[in-house]
Amino acid sequence: TVASMSPTAVLDTEILDVFDQWEANWKQYGGTFSMTSFEEAINRGEHAKFSLEKGKLKNLRESMRKTINEHIFGATSAGTDLSGYQSLIPDNPATGTVQAINAGTYSFWRSKQVTGTQTTSAYDNLRAKMRELRGLVSKGQGIKFPTRWVTGEGTARGYEGLLIANERVSMEKADKEAQGSFSGDIYKFGKANVYWDFDCADSRMYAMNNEDLQMAYQSGFWFKGYAAQSPVNQFVDVFKVETQCQLITKARRHLGIVTVIT
Predict the structure, then answer these.
(1) CA-to-CA distance for 262 and 129, rounded, in angstroms?
(2) Taking the CB of residue 243, how many other CB atoms lie within 10 A of it?
(3) What CA–CA distance (Å, rounded) separates 245 from 259?
(4) What is the mean pLDDT of the chain?
(5) SS3 205
(6) Beta bridge partners of 215
(7) Beta-carbon count within 10 A of 171 CB
(8) What pLDDT score does 185 carry?
(9) Is 126 in contact with 258 (CB distance < 8 Å)?
(10) Interval 22-36 mean pLDDT
(11) pLDDT tens for residues 230-248?
(12) Which end of the chain is less crowded, N or C, counting CB atoms within 10 A of the terminal residue's CB?
């Protein structure tokens, strides 16, 4: 407890509970691909167009990435799914229990939310709402601003349309922070990049901080592959790949969302 005091005032020695604990459960993703002895036989030597086994492994890796990405942006529909953005940064931050803390009871555990509905023309309120949200999730002027924004492909195109011509050009300067608001396929808002993803709804835009929103994974279990196993009654080798991970936040109040973007 901190307060102003006179030279002989008595210090407040009341013991306060100042620590809070959140808890996130690990989630497991697994996948397989099979390789028959027939496929192996016809895909070897000079007749092999490409390595079929490596191709199947690459396809499995991409499938796992796609599934995890869909769950990051989607609503957590199954108990085995990781906690996605719609759970950690919901449209209504004042409800729900996230990582074992009830946001309805504890206001410090609420993310921030603003509405981006148009007034007259499409996206005419978007930049203003991004500025508002940037202030809400910060710790003060210039302290812990969003490090990235993520939205859908349609809203990203709408945001690009709001930029004036010279903002769309990447400035080649020694001061990298002096670059324009568009560089290739990456947009800028202040110093933060604005990304888009097909799995993100166009009605939403997330403001995130790399320090307070992270993908955690068990050491040695990020796309971990296992030696092939062959069933005793089949000429098939089965390959398994596993990932153990969870999307976690340490401070939801520094994360935010613009909802109902039109």
Answers:
(1) 12
(2) 21
(3) 27
(4) 87
(5) strand
(6) 247
(7) 13
(8) 63
(9) yes
(10) 94
(11) 999 999 999 999 999 999 9
(12) N
- Go through the chain and tell me how many residues it has: 262
Give the Cα separation of 154 and 160 in Å (integer).
Answer: 10
Q: Token pair for residue 155?
A: 């809203």
Q: Do 26 and 83 meet the contact criterion of CB atoms below 8 Å apart?
A: no
Amino acid identity, position 211: E
- In this prediction the pTM is 0.84
| Residue 262 CB contacts under 8 Å (≥ 6 apart), including other chains | 116, 117, 118, 122, 123, 203
β-strand partners of 248: 214
Alpha carbon distance 190, 178 (integer Å): 10
The pLDDT tens digits for 60-104 are 999 999 999 999 998 777 789 999 999 999 999 999 899 999 999
Please count the other Cβ atoms lying within 10 Å of the Cβ belonging to residue 165.
7
Mapped onto helix, strand or coil, the DSSP state of residue 2 is coil
> What is the reported pLDDT for 177?
45
Within 95-155, strands assigned E span 97-98, 101-102, 112-115, 148-151
Residues 48-60 pLDDT 10s: 777 888 899 999 9
| Residues 146-169 pLDDT 10s | 999 999 999 999 998 887 654 544
Amino acid at 200: C
Q: Which two tokens stand for residue 132?
A: 């508002």
Residue 16 and residue 160: Cα distance in Å, rounded? 49
Residue among 192, 97, 206 at smallest CA distance from 151: 206
Give CA–CA dist 81/253, Å, rounded: 23
Residue 30 CA: distances (Å) to CA of 69, 79, 90, 229:
14, 15, 27, 15
Interstrand relation of 186-189 and 182-183 (parallel, antiparallel or unpaired): antiparallel
